[in-house]
Amino acid sequence: MASKDNFYKQHLSSPDPASTSRSPRFSQAQKKRSFAHEPKRQDSEFEQRVIEVRRVVRVTAGGRRFSFRVLVAVGNRKGKVGFGMGKAKDISEAIGKGNNIALKHIIEVPLTRKTIPFEMMAKFKMAKILLKPAPLGRGIIAGGTVRDLCELAGIENITAKVLSGSKSKINNAKAVLSAFVEMKYILNVKAKGKVGESSETQS
User: Fold this and answer.
1) What is the CATH number of the domain that holds 189?
2) Is 176 a domain residue?
3) Are residues 54 and 133 in the same domain?
4) Mean pLDDT, residues 80-107 taken together
5) Beta strand pairing status for 63-75 and 47-60?
6) Which residues, other chains included, contact 174 with Cβ-Cβ below 8 Å and sequence gap of 6+?
7) Distance, CA of 142 to CA of 158 (rounded, Å)
8) Based on the structure, what is the number of domains in the chain?
9) Per residue in 37-81, pLDDT tens?
10) Distance separating alpha carbons of residues 92 and 94, to the nearest angstrom
11) I need a surface site. Which of 45, 99, 106, 177 has the fewest CB within 10 A?
């Protein structure tokens, strides 16, 4: 169980929307150190898609503070997809933050003939999603956030359904990503088992 939990933490961690902007008063050395921790820009490889834009209000002692919350998904349509959430007073700045967070949380999706290798059910909080492989030519039978993530991951044939009736796009997205991570983990365990069996037979 410990190895499985470590696998999930490595591949599926909660994005942190509270990212602060850099101040122009930083020295050159501080800027180099800060940029060194940023992920390599792969804008040409990954496609960006805005899933949701919502205006949020924060009530403080000084009054109401309005900002925008943007959900962004990125993918290269070759088995890699990521999801992030950004908050800012400006929509473009919120999209940029969400894109950076999504690029930091890229996961690999196992693909078999442009579909998933086997059926998988995943749950995140109140969201419960069922994913089923589909034959060639069936297309993506899904809607909303599930469809966006499947398209960006490169899945062309799949049947998906939200069983819980959850309308939260954040929970639905994380449920889909947790299903992809679970598939990857199962395939890795099976591959290690086959390697161990082959080594035992050879010995």
Assistant:
1) 3.30.230.10
2) yes
3) no
4) 94
5) antiparallel
6) 12, 14, 83, 124, 125, 127
7) 8
8) 2
9) 344 444 568 999 999 999 988 888 888 889 999 999 999 999 999
10) 5
11) 45
First to last CA, the chain: 29
The whole-angstrom separation of Cα 151 and Cα 187 is 22
The size of the chain, in residues, is 203
Q: Would you give the DSSP letter of residue 21?
A: P
Domain-embedded: residue 87 = yes
CB 149 within 8 A of CB 125: no
For residue 38 the two structure tokens come to 């940023």
Assessment of whether the complete model's pTM goes beyond 0.85: no
Longest dimension (CA), the chain: 73
| Helices and strands of the chain, counted as H and E runs | 5, 8
Domain that holds residue 139: 120-202
The runs of H, that is alpha helices, within the chain are: 2-11, 28-36, 91-104, 144-153, 169-202
Say what percent of the chain tops pLDDT 90: 61
Last residue of a domain, one of 108, 139, 166: 108
